[in-house]
């Protein structure tokens, strides 16, 4: 019975995420479809034509931002739970994010060791880390260092992701994990929701410490498997 309950809970998480994606991606797609149909009409004034094309591009960019916050790796996830080496997976994600960090004048520093394992779906674990690291990089508006500390303490794998960016007020911290809350111009407000759900699905904990104009530190705690 216990395993059934856990399975149901997981299904709920998956379907909630899926419902959110389709809702958020469908809107820009519907709008773009409408514009394209309109553009088939002959004799559309040139300024209207350009306006519809620009709006379509914007809408498609929005759809792709949303998909990026959910699934940066567009590979289908197999739903396979594996034993993951935390240090190696963080290294993989750092490599993926390095170009983005460079554009933002951010160096990524990792301190940790191999040989600490947790259970989870690789793709989702990557997504969870990417969303937090991306926020950290985006928070350092004039560049800086994103520091990742990874260690094993007792039977707990601890990952700390620290930035020296703009920080958050306590009101902002309270809203973390709720969908569609963003302080950014082109933010989706979906990244932390996805991260929180994935950590929950891995039976882990996530905490945050933040000081306005000084920086933020997220801590993910997961159970070590031998
Ligand atoms: P988005 O990045 O699209 O805005 P997220 O769900 O990833 O959506 O983040 C929600 C909000 O949480 C951000 O808009 C920002 O206000 C705040 N936030 C998250 N991480 C950080 C951070 N490291 N530093 C400052 N603010 C953050
Ligand atoms: Mg984000």
From TrEMBL:
Keywords: ATP-binding, Cell membrane, Kinase, Membrane, Nucleotide-binding, Phosphoprotein, Transferase, Transmembrane, Transmembrane helix, Two-component regulatory system
GO molecular function, a single term: ATP binding
Membrane topology type: Multi-pass membrane protein
Localisation per UniProt entry: Cell membrane
One GO BP annotation of this record: cell wall organization
Catalysed reactions listed for this entry: ATP + protein L-histidine = ADP + protein N-phospho-L-histidine
Keyword Glycoprotein: no
Nucleotide-binding in keyword set: yes
EC number annotated for this UniProt entry: 2.7.13.3
Residue ranges of domain Histidine kinase in the record: 20-226
Any one GO cellular component localisation term in the record: plasma membrane
Name under which the protein is recorded: histidine kinase
Organism: Halalkalibacter suaedae
Covered residues, full protein: 197 to 422 of 422
């Amino acid at each position: 019975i216990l395993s059934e309950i856990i399975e149901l809970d997981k299904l709920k998480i998956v379907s909630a995420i899926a419902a959110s994606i389709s809702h958020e991606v469908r809107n820009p797609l519907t709008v773009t479809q409408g514009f394209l149909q309109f553009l088939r009409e002959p004799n559309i004034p040139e300024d209207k034509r350009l306006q519809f094309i620009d709006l379509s591009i914007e809408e498609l960019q929005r759809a792709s931002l949303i998909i990026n916050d959910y699934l940066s790796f567009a590979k289908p996830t197999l739903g396979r739970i594996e034993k993951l080496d935390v240090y190696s997976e963080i290294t993989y994600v750092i490599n993926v994010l390095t170009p983005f960090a460079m554009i933002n004048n951010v160096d990524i520093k990792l301190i940790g060791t191999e040989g600490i394992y947790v259970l989870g779906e690789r793709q989702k674990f990557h997504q969870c880390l990417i969303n937090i690291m991306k926020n950290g990089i985006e928070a350092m508006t004039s560049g800086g260092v994103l520091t990742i500390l990874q260690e094993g303490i007792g039977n707990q794998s601890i990952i700390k992701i620290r930035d020296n960016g703009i920080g958050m007020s306590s009101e902002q911290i309270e809203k973390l994990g709720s969908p569609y809350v963003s302080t950014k111009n082109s933010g989706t407000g979906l990244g932390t929701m996805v991260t929180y759900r994935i950590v929950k699905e891995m039976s882990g904990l996530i905490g945050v410490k933040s000081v306005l104009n000084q920086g933020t530190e997220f801590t993910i705690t997961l159970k070590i498997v031998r």
